[in-house]
Amino acid sequence: MSNYFIRAGILGAVSLAALSFPPAARAAASDPAVEQQHVAAADKLQAKGDAQGAELELKNALKAAPQDAAVRVRLARIELGMNDPESAQTDLRTAIKDGGDETEIVPLLDRAYFAQGKFEDLLRDMPARDDGPPLVRSAVLVARADAMAALKMYDDARSALTQAEQLAPRSVIPKLAIARLDYARDQPDSALSKVDEVIQAPASADGKGALADAHLLKGRILISKGDNAGALTEMNAALASDPANAAALIERAQLYIAQNQDAKADADIKAAIAAAPRAVAARYFQALLLVRAKDFTGADTDLTKYAQGFKAFPRGYLLQATVKILLKQYEQAEAAIDLYLAAVPGDLEGEKVQADLLMRMGNFAAAADVLDRAVLEHPNDADALEMLGQAYGPINTYRSREAFDKAAKLRPDNPSVLRGLALDNIAQGKDANGASDLE
């Protein structure tokens, strides 16, 4: 097995000496019996879904046998699942230097770089190669394609994936990457066709975890096509293949929430947190379930604790703003919604929350300004039009009635819209019409 990434510069500015003990010291420190005790303990903890405990045992195993690349790769997998890509990247670099299987390591390094948003770094550190095993060369091209797609270099990404599939036609990794690219480019049918190739393909040596990832991706594609029942089947299949797959657990929890099966969703979120304690998405849905249970204080505690992770998961700011509003902590709600709209400018749901907050704070003119912009972009959103009617109510009866009229045409049986119209009629002296609307 070649140490291509050392030659190609993937170690970056970190020297080999900084990544390892001197050879003699490492050999002296090796204790295979102790290592195996810790590995066996890690096996049991992972079987129980205790990723944090397994991580600690594998670190202790590496103290006993620092050059065991296979154990180090396994540790990196757990670190990736626990949202610690920096540690995973360091361990994977060391595993390559210690002769680890590059076929397994390259896709994991791809994930580590991707989780950190280091797309340009990946392209610099992983140049395409024309030597070595085809599976490794193919995996490098897939990693490069992922980075290119993230940088919106779609044609280059497609070209790299075509080469990757030609190099390793029996490998599932380039096929899955092509499906991801098609899905990201809003081509669900071609993505579905490609992901089915992965699901139906015989198991391959380079495809560890690929079957679960394929079912997970297929489930997401089906959700985008409105087939939630089919998506649930795929999430179940993903978890049958990999019971500790936190992403699949979180996706299935969302499907359960949509079905108002909160108890099942809660069980999946707890399992996801056990598998990936630092996964911000799992903590977000934990808080969402608390909101649905009307435990606003508990949700606020969770959201405050994990708010640092919302930079990479901005929807957390939106939920935090909503909870702060429910707790009447308006200044904190304002800070949270400002962070959300800075991360996702023009988002309709965020603008509605911001407008609702402004009205609660008595600033109806500012709320009307926000909603005017929102309905300009989304003229058929009845909720936004209804809110616009509410915002204009105290300051401009004519504009209020205009907004309520439009909302009523979109949603004629909505009691709150009709009430708004009635109050506007009464305010304009049209008492008979207002009374009729109120009835």
Sheet/helix structural class: mainly alpha
| Helix share bin | over 70%
Beta-strand content bin: under 5%
Provide the succession of SSEs: HHHHHHHHHHHHHHHHHHHHHHHHHHH
**Helical region count?**
27
Taking all residues together, what is the mean pLDDT?
86
Number of strands: 0
Sequence stretches where pLDDT stays below 50 over 5 or more residues: 1-28, 421-439
Overall shape: globular
Give the radius of gyration: 27 Å
> In this structure, how is the largest beta sheet organized?
none
Q: Give the end-to-end Cα distance, rounded to a whole number of Å.
A: 81 Å
Structure write-up:
The chain is an all-alpha fold. The protein is built from 27 helices and no strands. Helix 4 (32-47) runs antiparallel to helix 5 (51-64). The chain is globular, with a radius of gyration of 27 Å. It starts with a helix and ends with a helix. Residues 1-28 and 421-439 have low confidence and may be disordered.
Structure summary:
With 439 residues, the protein is mainly alpha-helical. It has helices at 4-8, 16-19, 23-29, 32-47, 51-64, 69-81, 85-97, 102-115, 119-125, 134-150, 154-167, 173-184, 188-200, 210-224, 228-241, 246-258, 262-275, 280-292, 296-305, 315-326, 330-343, 348-360, 364-377, 382-392, 397-410, 415-427, 431-438.
Any key phrases for this structure?
mainly alpha, 439 residues, disordered N terminus
